[in-house]
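# nightly structure sweep
# worker-07 picked up a monomer target from the shared queue
# config: single-sequence mode, recycle default, output format = structure tokens
# input follows
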Amino acid sequence: MTNEDPTIRRRAINHLLDSVRLGEAVGMCTMALRFTEALPDVHTPMLARMTMLVAYEPFEPAIFLGWRNGVTTTREMSLAQHQAGCSLEFWRTMAPAHGLKVLAEPSRERRTNGKIWLAPVPRGIPVAISSMMRRATSFITLLALVPMAAAMAGGDFTVAQLQSVVLSGQHPVFGGGITTGERFGRACTGLGDVDADGVPDIAVGSRSDQDGGTDAGAVYVVLMNRDLSPKAAIKLGPGSGGVPTNWIASGDMFGYGVAGIGDLDGDGTPDLAITSPNAEPAGTPTTANRGALFICFLRPDGSARAVTRIDDTNGLPLANGDSCGQGCAHLGDLDGDGFTEVGLGAPGTDDQGFNRGVVHIVSLRPDGTMLRQTTLGQGVAPSLMLDDIDNFGGRGLARLGDLDGDGAIEVAVGCYRDDDGGVDAGAVWILSLRGIAGGAFVIERTAKISGTQGGLTTPLADDDLFGMTVAPLGDLNQDGIADIAIGNNKDDIGATDIGAVVLAGLSSAGAVNTERVIAQGSGFPGLTLIPGERFGRALANLGDLRGDGSVVLGVGAGAGVNGGRLWMIVIGAQRSPDLNHDGTVDGADLSLLLAAWSLSGPTDLDWSGSTTGADLSALLGAW
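# output follows
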């Protein structure tokens, strides 16, 4: 604005705030889109306030044309900048060229005496025009009203609610080869950029694939586009994609667990760990269900150029029924010795009791063979306090990093049949691991998140299976401590066994500080689930697929319906509306946001992929 009196400016802002409060009172969020500059040639002695709603057509870009008195020159205006006066005829001509629809026009008398105001209106949003006129100054504010439910209200987390993308087993990229019951989406992982096109790629397990026999299993390496759509996929299974036929048999459930392990051999292409919890060595009864780990060295097309197998014939201490590999995670180099560690959950292991479970930490050589392993369970860490059939270790593990800065690395381990919050309600243990002489690892401390401890406020119930899956999120709430996603895949929110995911901001002690639930009916209009979906049965941080600094959370669901499916939900660290970082949210930040309208980047506060009215609402709320 120019030539304005500070008192007049304050009154105009107060008028805006009055409108905001009015919007809140009727359950709307109010977003100011423009102030005009002062008009020194307007001499209206009285204060006039009016608000009128302008009709709109859903999902169409539109403009509002209003009258501006006292302007004698015509100035063109960029839609991303402040308004300027232009003739009605000019905008009648220009609007269609810009794909805009004229929603309102001034009266005939004012068309002849004045010029025209134009303001861009966000697509599909109802609009209110609120004006305030005072001697020597005129302010016009364009307000857009959207339902509050569409605005972010998620604690410390910002989630792009409308960026949920479903990758179904029926997608054409899979050639129609995934059928009902094959459990596509039972596991997922980020791989990094396999084909060197600049976009990270993913792998998805289909543990009941039938090619090698009933429930033999398979894994799809999926090469991705920036918009989260798949561009190509290759199948790894018995006799497919470079996997030896005789290493996988009926019932093995190859692909039950998957983990991207980085470029293990240094050839420039990321590699992949795959587990088969029901696998047995040759000559062992097919019901032994001991488990095995496969290391697949990938080619740029996603196929395996070489595969190694690790089981109880070459170092893993397994027994019948251990089901090692129901949980699988890349843990990085835990002790700084230059070797990569993979965590394997073995929930059926009888350590100190029946099916209490353990975790195996496997250190890998660059050639995919096992250097050494450490078994962690109640036998070496009495503070775990497990009960029979707790199934510690299955089916999720996640490296969180050093939460408290003491040098130990915290790892989250699911314990999905824990009974703290109800029978099989589930829990997550946080283990503080430290390397010791000889390359082994010890548990220095433990913390537990359940229905009765660890700060969780989300209610748990019988058979929720909370903690069946876990995934690291990085520091989304920017408090300096890592956050975590936890699957609650038999939660009954809205329907039986429909499932949910809890986003938890952790404290340095491993307790929950803040949380948000992703579930049907909890503020995610793009999320449509069915009873028995078991949303959250797989979880993984798939990486920054969009290239904008966000995290794509892979969430398995479908429970075999139509082959199964994988949801990809965009989550971003909370972005500050103080866009110029001067310590205050003010008009300068508003100008930056408006100048970037429809673009991605820092002004896209809710990570929706473009700067929209929702971002403007967030900025004004912090003004």
